[in-house]
Structure formats: C-alpha cells, structure tokens
Amino acid sequence: MQKLAFRWPGLSGMALWRRRSWRRVLQFVGLFSLCLGVALGCAGNDQATPETPTTGNSNGRISLGTTLTARTLDPADAYETFPGILLQNLGDRLYTYTPGTTDLVPQLATEMPTVSDDGLTYTIPLRQDVTLHDGTPFTAEVMAFSMERFMENGGRPAYLLSEKIQSVEATGEHELTITLSAPFAAFPALLSFSGITPVSPASYEIGSGKFKPDSFVGSGPYKLASFASDAIKLDLNENYWGEAPTNQGIDIQIFTSPANLYNTFRTGGLDVAYKTLDPEQIASLQRESGSGGWQVIEGGTNVINYMSLNRRIEPLDDVRVRQAIAAMVDRPLLNERVFQGQAEPLYSLIPPGFEVAQPVFKDTLGDGNFEKAKELLTEAGFSETNPLTVEIWYPSASTIRSIVANTLKESIETALPGLVIVDIQNTEGATLWQNVGQGIYPIILSNWYPDYNDPDTFIQPFLGCETGSVEAGCEEGASQSNGSFFYSTEANALIAQQRAEQDPAARQAIIAQLQTMMAEQVPYVPLWQNKDFVFAQNGVDGVAIEPSQQFLLWRISRS
C-alpha cells in the first residue's frame, strides 16, 4: 500500500487571528466599493460613462460584469469573495452541495467519509476518472499534495486546515486518510471551501510564499484562458469528467465603479451583473425590470453585520450596559432608512438560513426597546446628570457604516435625550482591523464572511478563546481578535462539545445554549444581513445564488 504523509506545527493564536483580520479587510474592500455610489445617488449614475463592455453575443458565451476584484487565483492564498467564486468554477472539491439545496454531497470523493469512533480519522474514497487541466491524473497523492501546499505555503486561508489537521495521507491510489488534531463535526463542510481543490504538482510547488496568483491548473469545468485586472476569461474544459457547462465560456469584465456596471447592464452590454451595486441602483433595476427587459434574482447571504462590544473598557464591563445597548438597536429602522428594505434584521450571529438559528436578541431584548434600556441603565447608575457615552467606530471608507452609525445616534439620542450620548468615530479600515485585537476601540461596526456552510463558523470565531480568564477576559484567541475579549470556560467547553458531537440533534441543542449565552452576555450585537442580488437579461437562464452561497457559472445559458 502506497502511503504519503504530511505533518506540520499548528499556527499560534495571534498569527491565526491576524490572518482572519486580514480577510475581513479584503472582503470589506470588495463589498464596500459601492459606498461612493450611495453618496452620489442615481443622478451620478446617469452621468457616468460606461466602460467598454464585453457584450453579450450569439456564440454561447456569457458576459458577466462586477466591481469585485481578484487579487489572486492561487487556491492556497485566495481568501476573498470574487476569487472564491472563480475557484468554485475552475476547480472541484472533495465535497460540494446539490444545486438549490444545502445538502452536502461527494464531488471528487465517491462517498461521504468514514469517520473513526473517536472522531479523528476521516477515510475518503476518490474518483478514478478525473484528469487535471494539464492532463495529470487525479489521485490521492495529488489531493494530499494540494492540501499540504494549502497549509504549508502560508497563505491567508492556511489556518482553516492547519489548525485542525494532524496529517493527510494517500493510503491508496484513490484513498485519502485525514487525521484531525481534535474532533470537528463540521469537517466535511469545511472540505467544500473553494480553495481546498486539487492543483497540478507539475505546475505548483510547496514552500512558504510560493504562490502563482495569475494562473490556475486544476480539475474544474472551466480552464483559465486569461487573467487581468480588468477582464477574466474562462474557457470550457473539454475533458471535464462531470456535467458539462450549459454555455461555451464566461467573459468577465471588472468595472471601476458601480455606476459604470449599472449603466452597461442597463443598456444591454452585459448578460449578467453581480456585485456590487448601491441600494438606489438596485431599487431602480427592480422597478424597471418589467419594461427594461431584465430579471431580478434575489438570494440570501450568510454574511453577517454586527457590533462588537469591548468588555475591557468601562462601562462595557457591566453586562447591564451591554444589554442596554443591544436593546436600543432598532433593526427595522436601519433596514428602512439605510437599506431601503434590501436587508434582513439579524437577531443571532447564526444566520436564519440555518435551522439551528434562534432569534435570541429579538426574544430577550427586542428592537428599539428604550424602556428596557432605560431600566438597565438606571440600575447600572446612569442618569441625565451622569449620562452614558456610547462610542462607535467604523472604517472611514464605509459610507454604509457611517449611515448606520448616524442612524443609530439619531434614534437613540431622540428616544433617550440626556441619558445616552452616541459618539461616532472612524479611522482607515486597515488600521481599524489591525488594532481591534489590541482593545483600543469600545464598539466597532464589523462584518463576517463565513468560511464554510456550518453554524460553527458563526460560533467559535466569536465566543472561543484559547488563553484568558473570566477576570481578565480573552488574552489570545477568537474573541480577542474580534474585539469583544469575551471569555467563558462554559462557552469554551460547549464549543468543543458541539465540534465533537456527531449526532445532529444533540449538536443543535448545544448550539442553542451558546446562542442563549450570547444574548445574555452580549459580547456582540447582531444587526443585519444584506440581501444578495443578481441581474440577468431576459433570455439568460440558470442564474442563481445557491443556498450554500455558491455562484455556479456553469449553469448559466442563453436561450
């Protein structure tokens, strides 16, 4: 039996969370390219000059426009929204989701993994009919090489595997055996992450910093034909082992502004427009879809937006103050005034798309519950002669968060005059995220992009802590990186239990306890989720945002 094994040391907590913070910076830059559009409004959109479009045509290729950018296509380093979408379509993974569902199914694996009784060893049989883009046969050695490279090259998403896996072995030509350092029930879902995809050992190498940002040689339905800062072209993989795309390729144009993307799509220069348009542009396309000749496709998103409350800074060390702040938040008001109804109020850090999600903040503290807030603040010793100052920070480039913060200020100070003063502050985004873990900011407006489709990615990164105490708070770990410094031995134990629990019902009960704890202790206040919108010309079919948040370009066709 052929055997290939790899082992590596774990990352330090500080290094791990620094990488997670960088992901938030990069995701933030992509998502909030819309901000100037919000400030300028539709009048500015009408003035904009469209960039030269990759127009729709009759050769079966699909043209897609976006304002998102791709820093890299190296799966060992790509950790942003748009590269993830591209890698979903250029590569395959061991497991994926049945289109239209959140049912995890084998892709390059032939079966769901066999898990040892201790929850540490995963044995995965692999397909034998797959070749990579360069003709290299797909084997367990190729998959083990790709996973080792993902961890060893030191890319931004490396920790996703390196903190969980002890070894990965090719225990047969088409059998992969993975040993974890601790039980992790969500591991099969993690293996669907866009970057955990086989790459050719003939084209890639293992070594710190050895990345290939502008190429990709994998196994998916498309091959990368060209990659530039303003345009990306995907051609068919004629030798693809699986279901062939329903189009003849994808031509992607990257726009420098939402206004140019909006105008180019409106005038028929694109088949599909996806990310990122401002609320006014989205509302306009919704209103005019009947007469304009296009479709509006609305999808959910697992990206969450929240406030992080730093318990190390007085008076946020008082749970009554944290609860009062949560009670003052009026989520429906934010949705109406800031997002024009294009968002969803969020009442748990676990999005409602998960069955286990419970609206714990709505049930316990409500929306704009100023009577409850006043009661809690009075109990905590605050009054009009001793008012509470709530200092909220946000990244200066984010017009959306500026509007959110000022809407909260107006709402709170109007309802509780003299009792609460809201002080709005901002700084440059990279500076903000780099300093969050230093405990500088009392409250920050933040967001979170999940790494995989499982509730765990909305729990451990927020409540977990590797080093700390109840008295001192989190000194190193997840909640320190997220700026709340929450520490609870009970939370740490429950997180470990839900990660090890293989029975879905028992795991759901543990996660319910963690949500209740979050609403009681209020280290974070969930705020909203943006809805996801895609626009497609009439006659373009198969456009959808999957419940798993995948965007399957190979399903798009022109009738």
- The strand order across the widest sheet is 9-10-11-2-12-22-13
**Radius of gyration, Cα only, in angstroms?**
24 Å
Mean pLDDT: 91
Note the main sheet: 7 strands, mixed
Q: Based on DSSP secondary structure assignment, what is the total number of beta strands?
A: 24
Structural class of the secondary structure composition?
alpha+beta
Number of separate structural domains: 2
In the predicted model, the low-confidence regions spanning at least 5 consecutive residues are: 1-19, 25-56
Q: What is the fold-level CATH name, i.e. the topology of the largest domain?
A: D-Maltodextrin-Binding Protein, domain 2
Count of helical regions: 19
Q: Percent range for helical residues?
A: 25-40%
* CATH-derived architecture of the largest domain: 3-Layer(aba) Sandwich
Which range does the strand content fall in?
Answer: 15-25%
Shape: globular
Intertermini distance: 51 Å
Q: Which CATH first-tier class of the largest domain would you pick?
A: Alpha Beta
Find the CATH superfamily of the largest domain.
Periplasmic binding protein-like II
